[in-house]
Design brief:
The protein folds into 2 domains: about 35-125, OB fold (Dihydrolipoamide Acetyltransferase, E2P), CATH 2.40.50; about 140-240, no CATH class. The protein contains 3 helices and 15 strands. About 20% of the residues are buried. By secondary structure, it is mainly β.
């Protein structure tokens, strides 16, 4: 009887110290990565940017920014063609595309996730204008003889002047405009010691090249050179000459 009791005790001890039991007790949850892909094609409208280590799509509807997967260059190639004239680094274009979202996340770390837009078709891609709904400009000014344009873009911290006559783009850091009565004035300078002054006055203005009637006149002084034209404030509705 004593002999059998010893055997039973030995079996219990071996079971407790078995490798399988030890592995079970010491096992720790491992961080794994999952990929959730919804291949149901949808249409996305937003602002696309391409450049060194930058390939992003800012979705107009949701306000979310996605990394772009564009292995065939469906967006990259037309982006480069459209921006062939007067581009500046990381300039965004308005694009409408078809594609689907691919989401990679670290299990257990919900916040650590990356959402990518996989592009399958490009519907259109074009330069932003004052009619681009989700373009967050503050003012856009235009003129002709010579042709020029100014975009004031607070969320990009930029003021961009494109002077067609000089075939040149000027970039300036954004500065808040100073309001005085019905006028607003912007002054800024860049690292190249170039200076820019913008003066917008609230009054009816025609650009001379279209039937558009703007609510602001514009005067631009770039390094002492004066340009005149019209301006539109975000939210204004352009009227047409009858």
């Amino acid at each position: 009887m004593k002999y059998y009791s010893v055997l039973i005790l030995a079996a219990i001890l071996l079971s407790c110290n078995s490798p399988q039991k030890q592995r079970s007790d010491s096992a720790k949850p491992k961080q794994t990565t999952s990929e959730l892909i919804d291949k149901t094609a949808g249409t996305f409208k937003g602002l696309y940017t391409y450049g060194d280590e930058v390939n992003t799509f800012w979705d107009c509807e949701t306000g979310k920014k996605f990394r772009v997967i564009d292995s065939l260059g469906l967006l990259k190639i037309p982006y480069q063609k459209v921006l062939r004239s007067f581009p500046y680094p990381y300039e965004s274009l308005y694009a409408e595309v078809k594609g689907y979202l691919s989401v990679k996340s670290n299990m257990g770390y919900v916040a650590e996730q990356e959402v990518a837009l996989v592009v399958t078709e490009v519907i259109r891609i074009e330069v932003k204008t004052f009619r681009t709904d989700c373009y967050k400009y503050e003012f856009i000014a235009v003129g002709n003889e010579p042709f020029w344009s100014v975009d004031i873009i607070p969320n990009e911290k930029l003021i961009v002047l494109k002077d067609v006559a000089e075939d040149k783009v000027y970039l300036f850091p954004y500065q808040t405009g100073v309001v005085s009565g019905t006028s607003i004035r912007y002054q800024t300078r860049n690292d190249l010691k170039e200076t820019l002054t913008l003066h917008f006055k609230k009054e009816s203005c025609c650009d001379g090249m279209s039937d558009n009637v703007y609510f602001y006149s514009a005067e631009v002084n770039i390094n002492g050179k004066v340009l005149k034209g019209c301006a539109i404030k975000k939210g204004d509705i352009i009227r047409q000459n009858q």
